[in-house]
Design brief:
Two copies of one chain form a homodimer. Chain A has 13 helices and 22 strands. Chain A is α+β, with helices and mostly antiparallel strands. Chain A has two domains: 3-201 and 375-461, 3-Layer(aba) Sandwich (Aminopeptidase), CATH 3.40.630.10; 203-258 and 304-372, Alpha-Beta Plaits (2-Layer Sandwich), CATH 3.30.70.360. In chain A, the strands form six sheets. Chain A has an eight-stranded mixed sheet, with helices on both faces. In chain A, strand 4 and strand 5 (115-119) form a beta hairpin. In chain A, helix 1 crosses helix 3, helix 1 packs across helix 13 (443-461) and helix 4 (166-172) packs parallel to helix 12. The longest helix of chain A is centred in the N-terminal third of the chain and has 22 residues, at 4-25. The termini of chain A are close together. In chain A, 56% of the residues are buried. At the A-B interface, strand 10, strand 11, helix 5, helix 6 and helix 9 of A face strand 10, strand 11, helix 5, helix 6 and helix 9 of B. Strand 14 of chain A pairs antiparallel with strand 12 of chain B. Chains A, B: Its EC number is 3.5.1.18. Chains A, B: It is an enzyme of class 3 (hydrolase).
């Protein structure tokens, strides 16, 4: 089947495709906050209806958490490859809301120095990226009435909240979700205009703990002095996580399972068009603050981290309150690489904290948080070479294999539970401000992303 | 004029007096939160009406902030002493609200192991204590038709929010507020049933700062590693405030102006009935955590502190958010002793922080927060001996001169602006949970507190 008319159809349909994306962006499907449960449901319904409109046998599938969306279509020529396409329809919380220039769920087109962007929560992570593949399929159907590949769509609604329902769902539907290869669109380009295929992902460990000192909040005039303040204790313990000389994490055994990056891979990364200064300066850094002796890309792609995502205790309202608080709270996440074991790492971090607790301070841990190991892609598969060619054709720039600082646990589960390799192609840019106020997705990423998937499907079908 | 019938009148009227206090406690006069401005006004109106009902020439006096209440009554025999009575009608915020067993502004009587208590925000700090003096005056008027002393009532509505209007008001009304001695009822008893007169108070310095790292909140997968987290920086800086070996504050020059307590005063403190174990255990401490080498009472009354009252940044909502936050915030207060200068101390603390900032981290300070030096009372005045006798008679226990860990800046201002000495007598107990959830005031403190003021007025009038 001819590719060119499909690409033309995509160009003609782009403004309508953008409207469809905006409809999806208007649904505040924040998965981590129970208050938005109904909205997550609505987003799933919207996707089911959209897939059905192009002849996909799609349905919303209930879970104990937010629903999955699964769709099947098999109108491809006999012997065509079978791909499982994954994306997630849930989005991050929007706070701090006051830093948004426009309401996060009232998406709009804006002109910027880098061209038109689609502004709104989820535009880049991941609704916009998810829709690049859906729109590519729509164009194939419109032009040829069929698709070049057999396709199973698999959309999740809990990616931003730890995917609690994912493993049981995959285990319960092993047969239904079988395919030759998983395609994932949730990654970014190493730099503007450089098509990128992620060859490795960092894993993730989440934990949260609360330190309790006095039974109740105390008056700092009565107990300030003899009383031990859990915020002081928390500061001491968080500070002890790090070695300020080397920039490394100081938790004993933290780097167990971490491997150095092979020299040839390092060379590739150094030549992949990544602009270190732009990457750091764009957010207000003048230098890389991670482990000394490692480049910014190594710190981001190949080194583990222990990050404090939230820390709070005492009075944070208007004015002042002379209180010595009873509790201090801390949320942390670690990014894992190589063979780091999330469960062993959790134990090491908890031991680090417990070994350092002062008398009269107790710690409680949140035991509902999960971890996932790092992933390395199977670059020997022919689909990777096919995709590299297709992307290079679309972007007039040699596509590159990159690392990834983020974590996409589903890739590991596809492998361990479904026995599936994954290929990660995404069109986001570093300045998309995902997880931040004023998230956006370049219209160019959306448009050329759709065209890229059309080309990739064509290439791997050959 | 005979004292005994006044004391009997107080006993007969105690349940009605308790009802009046509960009316005042129902008004949520939280001064630090602008949302409660109208309530602060209502509390002032309530007090004006109550004073007028007993023949006091009272009026609400507007300020740029919350109003003052000033009342005069001069029906005492010629040559009677003139006292200025001070209390505050504003209260602390009530968060964390979920830790209150009953709504904080729906006061009620409760039976406890220590007898009946009046439960509710402000019951002890300071509405209940303020009303002990008002009720004592009411009883004198009811029995004798006159008061034994000439009295000026002076009630403030900004004590819990730094008293921004106090200094200008005192300066503008020097003449009107003249008296022989100021009486202040905002302190506690050194231990249950031991009448106490505060001989020294700690001063107070408030400050607040915000650390800013990246321009925006960042994705911890993209910038975790090269990015410097302001929460990590905040933890390092807060930890650097303290010397964990000695328990002392590590800010250079912090102890300038601090004097050791004379041996004879230390001996008095050791014999004043203070139960150190009970004081610490009641809130969950097994030992004193302050400066090594100083007793709990010294740490509380005679040593300065640097306390973190609030620390926050990043995500603190439900679930997890993989964010590297842009900002971290910290509220601190210091308790000052001896000749410590609040302004010099503020400079030392700010220099300590600024000297330790990492590249790419900036700090902003809140410049609207004030400080006040420590105060030492003039125990040579005859009124102190008179009050000590009156209190000893009422409580059947030798009254003691104690230190105070808290700060009552007005005492310093009465001295520097009005040229007035102050005498501080209060009936609160350490377990009153002031500034905390479930604040209470013992009915015994209220009842015997009223009787105590009746006796003190009688004694100093002689």
């Amino acid at each position: 089947m001819a590719l060119e008319p499909v690409l033309s159809q995509i160009d003609e349909d782009i403004s309508t495709a953008t409207e469809r994306l905006m409809d999806l962006l208007r649904i505040p499907s924040i998965s981590t906050d129970p208050a938005y449960k109904a909205d997550c449901d609505s987003a799933a319904d919207w996707l089911v209806a959209d897939l059905k409109s192009m002849g996909v046998d799609a349905a919303k599938r209930e879970t104990p958490g937010h629903p999955m969306v699964v769709g099947h279509i098999n109108d491809a020529p006999a012997g065509a490859p079978h791909v499982l396409f994954y994306g997630h329809y849930d989005v991050q919380p929007v706070d701090p809301l006051d830093l948004w220039d426009n309401p996060p769920f009232e998406p709009q087109l804006e002109e910027t120095e880098h061209g038109t962007v689609i502004r709104g929560r989820g535009s880049s992570d991941d609704k916009g990226q998810l829709m690049t593949f859906v729109e590519a399929c729509r164009a194939w159907k419109a032009v040829h009435g069929t698709l070049p590949c057999r396709i199973t769509f698999f959309f999740e609604g809990e990616e931003e909240s730890g995917s609690p329902s994912l493993i049981p769902f995959l285990e319960a539907h092993r047969e239904e979700l079988q395919a030759d290869l998983a395609l994932v669109c949730d990654t970014s380009m190493v730099s503007r205009g450089v098509p990128s295929i992620a060859s490795q992902l960092r894993g993730m460990l989440k934990d949260e703990f609360t330190l309790t000192g006095p039974r109740i909040d105390l008056h700092s005039g009565h107990y300030g002095g003899p009383g031990l303040n859990p915020l002081r204790e928390m500061s001491r313990i968080v500070d002890s996580f790090y070695n300020d000389e080397t920039g490394a994490v100081a938790v004993e055994g933290f780097y167990e399972g971490v491997h150095e990056v092979p020299a040839d891979q390092l060379r590739q990364w150094e030549n992949c068009g990544f602009d270190e200064a732009e990457y750091l300066n764009s957010v207000g850094y003048t230098k890389a603050h991670g482990e000394k002796g490692y480049s910014t890309l190594e710190q981001q792609w190949a080194r583990p981290t222990l990050e404090v995502n939230g820390l709070w205790g005492g009075y944070n309202g208007v004015g002042s309150k002379t209180v010595l608080p009873s509790k201090a709270h801390c949320k942390i996440t670690c990014r894992l690489v190589g063979d780091m074991d999330p469960d062993k790492l959790r134990d090491k971090i908890r031991k680090h904290v417990e070994d350092r607790l002062s008398t009269d301070i107790s710690v409680e841990w949140d035991n509902d948080l999960e971890g996932s190991p790092a992933s390395v892609m199977n670059l020997d598969r022919p689909e990777f070479e096919a995709a590299r060619g297709a992307l290079s054709d679309e972007w007039n720039r040699e596509a590159v294999f990159t690392g990834m600082g983020g974590s996409i646990p589903v890739v590991g589960y596809f492998n361990t539970i479904l026995g599936l390799d994954s290929m990660l192609v995404g069109y986001a840019n570093d300045d998309d401000a995902i997880h931040s106020p004023n998230e956006k997705y370049d219209l160019k990423s959306f448009h050329k992303g759709i065209r890229s998937w059309a080309r990739i499907m064509d290439a791997i079908a050959k």
